[in-house]
Amino acid sequence: xxxxxxxxxxxxxxxKSNCRECGEKTCLAFAGAVFMGQRKLSKCPRLDRExxxxxxxxxxxxxxxxxSRDEYLTKLKAEIANIDLGAxxxxxxARWSGGKLTLKILGKAxxxxxxxxxxxxxxxxxxxxxxxxNYVLYxxxxxxxxxxxxxxxxKDGKERYSLFQKRCEEPMKRVADAYTDxxxxxxxxxxxxxxxxxxxxxxxxxxxxxPKVPIxxxxxxxxxxxxxxxxxxxxxxxxxxxxxxxVFTLGVGLAQMFQKLSLRHGVPGAVSSL
Length: 274
Ligand code: SF4
Known about the structure:
The structure is a single chain. This protein starts with 6 loop residues before the first helix and ends in a 10-residue tail after the last helix. The protein has helices spanning 7-13, 27-35, 49-54, 65-81, 85-92, 126-138, 161-178, 182-190, 238-241, 244-264, and strands at residues 95-97, 100-105, 108-113, 118-120, 148-150, 193-194, 203-207, 215-220, 229-235. It is globular, with a radius of gyration of 19 Å. The strands form two sheets. The chain has a five-stranded antiparallel beta sheet, covered by helices on one side. Strands 1-2-3-4 form a four-stranded antiparallel beta sheet, covered by helices on one side. By secondary structure, it is of the alpha+beta class. It folds into three domains: 7-75, Orthogonal Bundle (3-methyladenine DNA Glycosylase II, Chain A, domain 3), CATH 1.10.15; 81-138; 148-269. Iron/sulfur cluster binds at residues 14-15, 17-22, 24, 27, 30, 44-46.
């Protein structure tokens, strides 16, 4: 059974019409989601049965994800070079100056020029760069609505929710359980804000990994023999501003960042493999 080595190999199988029938904004976004194990190849109604069967076992694609990210980023970068970046800045509410679009990621300035080159003071992780590109390319810039929904309530979130729990919410909960300063450090280091407690949680913190894609993390402390719990919520306007694959990537990336923070603060017990 052939196994695509990267997202671009999956992309080559598709008809590249960007028809959106699969629920993704582009064929490229769909290819990235299949490769990461978030979507099934069979969800593209334009693929013939033979191709789907030939490339079955797609949930294993993510084993080689590290190899593919650079190619995926290269493709997104090329797409940036083909758009009117000044108009995109206006659309998503970013600053446009000196041929660069700039917006804030977790409080830090993040820019891209008309060739798709990125500029920032922080380390450029693919988990930030991929959503950033997709936000600039396809986000509508819709205003934040101020009402919170879970990942599974987002468009096409339901079928990916169990994976999101496994890769984002569960690792975050483990970190929060062991690393008691986590939420204070989010405020100090990541420009997060503690907000009025939501959904009867003990702690509610809002982060802005992209300006119009706020994420709220709610944590319930253990109590009376009950385990702690943690859920991640998104603004209701998220579907307008970012594709579900990028939302997933942001959540998983944040969980990995919290694990690294906990290691840096000498709390290794918070980390287990994702
Ligand atoms: S349904 Fe298939 S062809 Fe249409 S956008 Fe999705 S992947 Fe592309």
